[in-house]
Amino acid sequence: MSAKGELLKAIIDSARKAGIEAYHGSPYDFDKFQTEAIGTGEGAQAYGRGLYFAGSEDVARGYRDSLTKLRKDGTTPVPEDSIANSYEQEYGLSRYEDFNNTTLDDVIETISDDAVETSADVNGNVRYEFSDGSGYLITQDGKVIPSGEVSGRMYKVNIDADPDELIEWDELIDEQPKKVMDKLKSADWWPYAEEGIYDIAGARGENPTGADLVRWLEQDGQEYAAEALEDLGVKGIKYADAFTRHKSKDKRSNNYVIFDPRIIEISKKYGISIPLASAVIGGTMSPEEAQAASVGAVKKIIDEVLSQGQDAARGVGSLAGASGRTFKNQADETIARVYDNLRTQKDQYDEPVFDQLPVGKLGGKTGRSGVTGVARYRMPEGYSGSLEKLGRAAPDLIEIAPDADGAKYFSDQITSAKKANKFGASVYVYPQKEYKDMRLFITDDGSAGYALKPNGDVVSAFSSGTHKGVAQNILLHAVEQGGVKLDAFDTVLPDLYSTMGFRESGRIPWLDEEAPEDWNKAVFRAFNAGEPDVSFMAYSRDPAIPVEPRYKSSYESAVEAQDRDVEDFRRSPLLNIINSGGAAGLGAAAMLPPRKRRPWALRILQPKAYVL
Fold first, then answer.
1. Does the pLDDT of residue 256 top 60, yes or no?
2. Using CA of residue 102, residue 106, residue 107, residue 111, what is the dihedral sign?
3. Rounded Cα–Cα distance for residues 257 and 238 (Å)
4. Which helix (H) or strand (E) holds 512?
5. Those residues with Cβ within 8 angstroms of residue 88's Cβ, 6 or more apart along the chain or in another chain
């Protein structure tokens, strides 16, 4: 078989492989995981003996940083010839509190202009890294500390195991996965273990958990406990990380302890995807060059598309659509092709478009008291400058905690936009308590935002019109966060969403009995005499194409078609992987729960003049 054939086979095999996607941070550089290294480093085996992985990349990066030889403040000395030192000499950023009218947000903005990587550790500190490896640490309490290069490596892995083959550390014994319990009950030592763990937990006045079982087995040593479980076919242990342990089970981020290194495959190293890692290993590219290549390559293509689009608008040449299917006008065609390239950046290079930054303080705006920021997402300046030429605004988006205060603030903002909008009847504002079960994103000024359900449903997107052309960037961010589907009345919105890769799965015609209570056909007369269809759309990785109407016989059949498309998207990324030359972003398909029939009331707000 040719080298190309071997690569294709490897990609196909990887795409077909289910399992758990996880991350590992280490001060060491290696090519495979080995149990022989367990206990030789500084990491404590607090949750059993095995190889430790995090479901969250930020958590793994925090472990890497904490295990690397750092000063007590989490940094390394700053070399005199480093970028961080030059910043410190010129701006004195670590002393910002001594300067008049200088805030932490000002410091972060200054640093982030040249930062190539941003990471958070397990203590909530954030590190900005420059191209030479130096950088700044922003501590949770607002201190700004210059830092030299932080060594160590990040590994993205696929674990050949199902979650129900792992003991759940935090869960009760009688709530463990059935596969695990069947294996445990087959052991000749199980009756003794069961009696022992009930005695241990009973002394606390509680029922036993997975942790109690592991601890009982470890009375004969950690290695014995791991071997006893592995011999039964139990592949490891799952436990909630420190950031999310207090949350409900469905909102936790998990860490994993794996007994057998043979079921662990490294899919990413150096913080870059497989194709670029191959170039690093082959000696044709340095890790730093590979890191910059992903963003630089996309930026170059975007500028070329913009130039072609501008020429086409003047009648010089043309900008061809995907598979010969073009949008209604050249402006939409240009937008679609620009965002085609932005949308593929995460799949092809495993680098999200939006940088994740510290939130900063959220006070100072009416109604925002008590609202907690989770993360700030910012479009890199190089991209935002290009998008401004398209009339696409790219304001920061802040994720806010969906607690009572956050849900109320989000609900108040979208309700205000709905009331001020002549087309407000088309927006569905969820009951406030339902927003507590979604992720909530909103601009700093509260004028635009969206919500994301756990199943990938993008809902309650809105804009007051302050940020013109913000729709595409809201949707781009939603897709990067896991958004895969949305619904829309057939006004201008399906066309807009199609420029972002959403394709129609089904549509149903207007029915008076299903219309929103405050619907006024005269207001919407430009759209099928005030009786627009309802379009159900699902996300596709392929190049954007115009809307292709797909009529269905009922609401239920349209929803079923949409959910099938979403399931196919999640299950079969193979074609996209082969085209991009890598295996990033793979994951097992998620089965969607049935969706209750609800009123038509659209969950996407159409702002004034239909311009988001």
1. yes
2. negative
3. 6
4. none
5. 78, 94, 146
Q: Cα(218)–Cα(230) distance, rounded to whole angstroms?
A: 14
- Please name every residue paired with 172 in a beta bridge, in sequence order, or none if there are none: 209
Closest-CA residue to 79 (of 137, 134, 130): 134
Please check whether residue 137 is in contact with residue 125, taking contact to mean a CB–CB distance below 8 angstroms. Answer: yes
The two structure tokens encoding residue 171:
């869960």
Place of tokens 């085609």: 340
Q: What pLDDT shows up at residue 14?
A: 45
**pLDDT tens-digit profile of 93-117?**
888 877 777 788 888 888 877 787 7
Mean pLDDT of all residues in 315-319: 51
CA 204-207-210 angle, to 5 degrees, is: 105
Structure-block tokens of residue 322: 């995907």
For residues 486 and 563, the answer to whether their CB atoms sit within 8 Å is no
Q: Give the whole-angstrom CA distance, residue 6 versus residue 4.
A: 5
Residue 443 pLDDT > 90: yes
The type of residue at 488 is A
What element of type H or E holds 475? helix 471-480
Residue 466: other Cβ atoms inside 10 A: 15
Residues in the chain: 612
Report pLDDT for 271.
42
- Rounded Cα–Cα distance for residues 442 and 458 (Å): 13
End-to-end CA distance of the chain: 52
Give the closest residue to 155 by CA, choosing from 281, 309, 31. 31
Q: How high is the pLDDT of residue 422?
A: 81
The residues near 333 (Cβ < 8 Å, ≥ 6 apart) are 309, 312, 319, 321, 326, 327
pLDDT (0 to 100) of residue 149: 66
**Does position 299 have pLDDT exceeding 80, yes or no?**
no
Adjacency order of strands within the sheet including 502-508: 485-489, 534-539, 502-508
Rounded-to-integer distance, Cα 316 and Cα 379, Å:
31
Distance CA 520, CA 517 (A): 9
As a whole number of angstroms, the distance between CA 546 and CA 562 comes to: 17
Q: 């797909």: which residue's tokens?
A: 550
**DSSP secondary structure string, 524-592?**
TTTTGGG---EEEEEE-SSPP------B-SSHHHHHHHHHHHHHHHHH--HHHHHHHTS-TT-----PP
The pair of structure tokens assigned to 184 is 């445990």
Structure tokens at 354: 């939006």
Measured CA to CA, the distance from residue 22 to residue 463 in angstroms comes to: 36
